[in-house]
Amino acid sequence: MKHNVPGLNYLQVFKKHRGIMLFEAILFILLGCFAIAAPTLFTVATDYLLGGFFIVGGSMQLYRTYKMWGISGSWLSFFGSLITIFAGCTLLTRPLVGILALTTILAVYFLIASAVKMSLAFSYQQTHKFWLVVNSLLSLALGLMIIAGLPETATWVIGLFVGIDFLFFGFMLLAFYSSVDE
Which of 47, 97, 166, 182 is the S-S candidate for 32 at Cβ 3.0 to 4.6 Å? Predict the structure, then answer.
């Protein structure tokens, strides 16, 4: 797909594909509502999906390592593939362990993102500081809320956050759809 093509009229492209945009908006709004209504189910589904991805990816890495055996790093690649497959199997066979690990990673992400945003706020000019500070404090609050509620938050927080993200993405697409006349 080409971007920033001279003479490309984005309004015409949006008009041409309005129906697809509406379908996608409705799909994401429905998925978002479902995830918010059943966050535990979505959290478990995320764990299983990632577990499957790890097994498929690790198996592919193992196959490639087997086919290319003898080159430098073969043993490291072999062990890396086994670790990836093991991680996938763990996510599938012990979903609570996987969900707890994923939720902890999410909490750490929010804490690190908060620190980065706050340091950016102090490096920008006055006009940009306010929203970065607010966003930094929000990230900090989310990270601390997740950590304070562990292990209970692990069962629902990923599904809820995915649902909120899907819902807002769907509404954003709906706004794009509505702003383009037929």
Answer: 166
| 12 exposure class (CB count in 10 Å sphere: 0-12, 13-18, 19+) | exposed
Torsion angles phi and psi, residue 68, rounded to 5: -110, 20
Q: What is the predicted pLDDT for the residue at 127? A: 60
Domain residue spans of the chain = 16-179
Whose CA is closest to 98, among 140, 62, 61, 46?
46
Rounded to an integer, what is the distance from CA 72 to the centroid of its chain? 34
Lowest mean pLDDT among 1-5, 57-61, 109-113: 1-5
| Joined tokens for residue 117 | 């945003």
Residue whose entry in the numeric block shows the structure tokens 């945009």: 21
DSSP H helical ranges for 1-125: 10-16, 18-37, 39-67, 74-93, 95-123
The alpha carbon torsion through 102, 104, 107, 111 (nearest 10 deg) reads -120
Number of Cβ within 10 Å of residue 115's Cβ equals 13
Assign residue 105 a region (left: φ > 0; alpha: ψ between -120 and 50; beta: otherwise). alpha
